[in-house]
Amino acid sequence: MRPARVDDFRLPELRFVPTGSLISHERHDSQRLGPLLEQLEERGVLQNPPIVTPLPPDGGHERYMVLDGANRSTAVASAGYPHVVVQIVKYEEPWVTLGTWDHALSEAPIDHLTAACARLPGLQSGSAPILHAQAQLARREALAFVTTDDRGALVFRGGRNLEERNQLLNGIVDVYREGRRFYRMSTESFEVARERHSDVTALVVFPHFAPAEVLELANGGAKLPAGITRHLIRWRALRVNVPLARLADRDQSREAKNAWLDAWLKDRFHRRQVRFYEEPTVLFDE
Q1: For residues 22 and 70, is the Cβ–Cβ distance under 8 A?
Q2: Residue 218 falls within a domain, yes or no?
Q3: What is the pTM of this model?
């Protein structure tokens, strides 16, 4: 039998797991929790399962780190459901590619941002040409930088280890994430960000993390700032639309729920209701 390949057309691994077994690697966005709960109840289904990867068991209890869907998994837990359907993946390429989102701030006074960051204990900052700022970030000599054009940047430094650097990153993001609108961007160019969103006044650029760093932080109970890790999933399951009644049912065992899920997925596959997309896809009904 030939070994499985990443481009094989195969159904994703979807399972019911205990809601309490999910551990987020990033802070959830509290502003999105209420609308997500309302959306769940209105639709009556869990449309897109959170993406998770296994963590070492704790005291014999299974654990999964959420790669994508922190807000969805938090909403399900807040609703009190005992189980949630997740997609389980290997946290390695080519199945998962880890990238970075940068934050384009909307109508944010740069003076307020820099003054607030200057008050964070242990955080140092200094000006640098944009190319030097990017090089420092690539070498992990810098925590992050903020720019208002493509010429210069304010570079943030500090932290003696991964945990301390993560705490400082959370402090920087906390300065604006509750009170200011921001866009997730895949560019380090302020001008490109401004072309896409005319209200952008500053771009905060973050470092690229390795999966081992994300796992280490989550395993130790720490969380990265919301919205800076970008996980690209091979064969991502979308529009599964599992009824919330299945998640909420406390009389049916998890084993029985998974047996139902297996049969349900196989039935959809045989009815040709499953479609595989290999090319990048843009959806307009999310």
Answers
A1: no
A2: no
A3: 0.86
